[in-house]
From TrEMBL:
Residues spanning the membrane: 53-74
A Pfam family this chain is assigned to: DUF881
Name of this chain's protein: Uncharacterized conserved protein YlxW, UPF0749 family
A cellular component term, taken from the record's GO annotations: plasma membrane
Superkingdom assignment: Bacteria
Residue ranges of the region described as Disordered: 83-103, 265-314
Organism: Micromonospora echinofusca
Length: 314
């Protein structure tokens, strides 16, 4: 049996079968429920064109907001750039002035040191002046000349990352490398050592401040040359040292430059006069009586205890 023809809404005609189970599986939803669900979807779902306009509007608003924020940030950056450039230029100018002043004072200090040495040699006898000169040479406070060894270290060249192409920082010489070279040169028999013209003494320090290396609180830059004056066997003994073997391995792995060569007639400058500080004995406390007769209690050995000095001098 067939039902009524279609109702003009695009739905097919409902076909009625004589078998109830066949009809149930073929048309599980009653036409009235189907019409109600369709009307509900039409009321709740906006048209496709309205949805497209809504998405475009939101995208446009977000793009305008981001553009406004970028414009404000760019304007603020441009406004602050002159101030930063001026501050940077001022700092660079101050650094250059201080370096010039430091160099001038260093030259003046060398001149005065030489004048003091001449006056002292004139006041002392020949043997006393020679003895004083030997003592200054041994302590690093006098200028020395002689044959020796020069150890040269330099940073590896700049490299680029194979994936990103960005510059990768080179393998740098660090302060402990210079410490190891200097210590092993002393152990090899060096009598005087200087790093980039900075003479080492018993009170010298080699340390780092950020990426800078300081020798006696004075910055040194690469390439670094550690010059040492000593006996002829010094090079062979240093070649077998721990620092030499380590630096050769580092140079092979990272590209850092390391070399050892003999040098004739080296001249190492004198180190600045150190600022010595001396320990002073502590003030003796007032003894307190231990009895009625006013006698002082004896120490472990029977004598009065007395304070010892607070330490030795440097």
């Amino acid at each position: 049996m067939t039902g009524t023809p279609g109702d003009g809404r695009g739905r097919p005609d409902r076909v009625y079968a004589p078998d109830f189970l066949t009809e149930l599986f073929r048309n599980p939803l009653d036409p009235g429920y189907a019409d109600a669900a369709a009307r509900r979807r039409e009321r709740q779902t906006p048209p496709a064109q309205w949805r497209r306009w809504s998405a475009r509007s939101v995208t446009l608003v977000v793009a305008l907001l981001l553009g406004f924020l970028f414009a404000v940030a760019y304007r603020q950056t441009l406004e602050a750039e002159p101030g930063r450039s001026q501050a940077r230029s001022g700092l660079v100018e101050q650094i250059k002035q201080r370096e010039t002043e430091t160099d001038r004072l260093s030259v003046r200090a060398d001149e005065l040191r030489a004048e003091v040495a001449r006056q002292r040699a004139a006041a002392l006898g020949g043997s006393e002046a020679a003895r004083l000169h030997n003592l200054e040479a041994g302590t690093g406070l006098g200028r020395v000349r002689g044959d020796g060894v020069v150890v040269r270290l330099a940073d590896a060249p700049q490299n680029q990352d194979a994936v990103t192409g960005a510059d990768v920082g080179p393998s740098r010489v660090i302060y402990s490398d210079l410490q190891g070279v200097a210590n092993d040169l002393w152990a090899a028999g060096a009598e005087a050592i200087a790093i980039n013209g900075q003479r080492l003494t018993a009170m010298s320090t080699i340390r780092s401040a950020g990426q800078a290396i300081l020798v006696d609180f004075r910055p040194v830059t690469g390439p670094y040359e550690v010059s040492a004056i000593g006996p002829g066997s010094m090079r062979d003994r240093y070649e077998d040292s721990r620092s030499a073997l380590t630096m050769r391995k580092v140079a092979e792995d990272t590209g850092l430059s390391f070399g050892v060569r003999e040098a004739e007639d080296l001249t190492l400058p004198a180190a600045p006069d150190p600022r010595l500080r001396y320990a002073q004995p502590s003030v003796s406390p007032t003894p307190s009586p231990s009895g009625v007769d006013g006698s002082v209690s004896p120490g472990p050995t029977g004598s009065r205890t007395s304070p010892s000095p607070s330490g030795g001098g440097r």
